[in-house]
């Protein structure tokens, strides 16, 4: 009987794997993961590492980055400290010319007067005397005309330091000299005995010619016609000349 019971019990065997081998006991790391404190500890460690990396990155950024615009401010300060005459020779002459105050295109000891004024559109009272008649045509005077009371010839001088940019003999205006001084141009007409050539550099007060005559204003006798342009625009010479 006992033997039958023994024989009737199912034969117990260790479970097999697919290959037929017995299963291996759980590894040590699986046992560790089964413990409750493992996951919270791992989470805290990861969080601590992340916070440390963020702090290090922010600290490095604050040390290396400058406020936007700081470089521009320093560059502008340095550029403003440079002397105005720095650069090419032509640029230095231009700065000097613009810094000058214009002088009358005649010597101080020459007694001249304005025999024909500039045609000022804003001053109707001077319109009639500021018109130039040539044959049957009347033209507004674009500058001022200077002459002596006894119709004598006198020396014409450069009103500003600059470069002679035009010398020509005009059939109506007589000999013409143009001097460019930065953004300012001074034009001298009705000249005699021109002493400068185109391309020459002249200084303020240098003698450039003597007063002469022109076909366009022959009734004025010996005189100099003087025009001023600033930024390419015609201006009244009296407005930029000192009181005489």
Automatic annotation (TrEMBL):
The keyword Cell wall biogenesis/degradation does not apply. Keywords: Membrane, Transmembrane, Transmembrane helix. Residues 65-82 have a biased composition (Polar residues). One of its GO terms (molecular function) is metalloendopeptidase activity. It comes from the Bacteria. Pfam families: Peptidase_M23. Residues 1-26, 65-91 are annotated as: Disordered. Residues 141-237 form the M23ase beta-sheet core domain. This is M23ase beta-sheet core domain-containing protein. It comes from Paenibacillus glucanolyticus.
């Amino acid at each position: 009987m006992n033997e039958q019971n023994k024989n009737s019990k199912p034969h117990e065997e260790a479970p097999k794997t697919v290959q037929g081998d017995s299963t291996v006991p759980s590894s040590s790391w699986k046992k560790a993961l089964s413990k409750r404190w493992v996951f919270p500890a791992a989470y805290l460690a990861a969080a601590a590492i992340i916070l440390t990396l963020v702090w290090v990155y922010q600290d490095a950024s604050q040390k290396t980055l400058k406020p936007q615009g700081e470089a521009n401010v320093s560059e502008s300060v340095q550029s403003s400290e440079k002397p105005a005459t720095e650069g090419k020779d032509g640029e230095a002459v231009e700065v000097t010319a613009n810094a000058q105050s214009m002088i009358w295109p005649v010597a101080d000891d020459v007694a001249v007067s304005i025999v024909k004024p500039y045609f000022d559109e804003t001053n109707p009272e001077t319109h009639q005397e500021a018109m130039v008649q040539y044959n049957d045509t009347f033209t507004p005077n674009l500058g001022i005309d200077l002459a002596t009371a006894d119709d004598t010839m006198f020396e014409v001088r450069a009103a500003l330091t600059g470069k002679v940019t035009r010398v020509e003999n005009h059939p109506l205006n007589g000999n013409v000299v143009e001097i460019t001084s930065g953004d300012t141009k001074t034009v001298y007409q009705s000249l005699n005995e021109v002493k400068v050539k185109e391309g020459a550099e002249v200084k303020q007060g240098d003698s450039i010619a003597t007063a002469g005559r022109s076909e366009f204003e022959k009734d004025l006798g010996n005189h100099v016609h003087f025009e001023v342009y600033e930024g390419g625009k015609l201006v009244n010479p009296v407005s930029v000349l000192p009181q005489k």
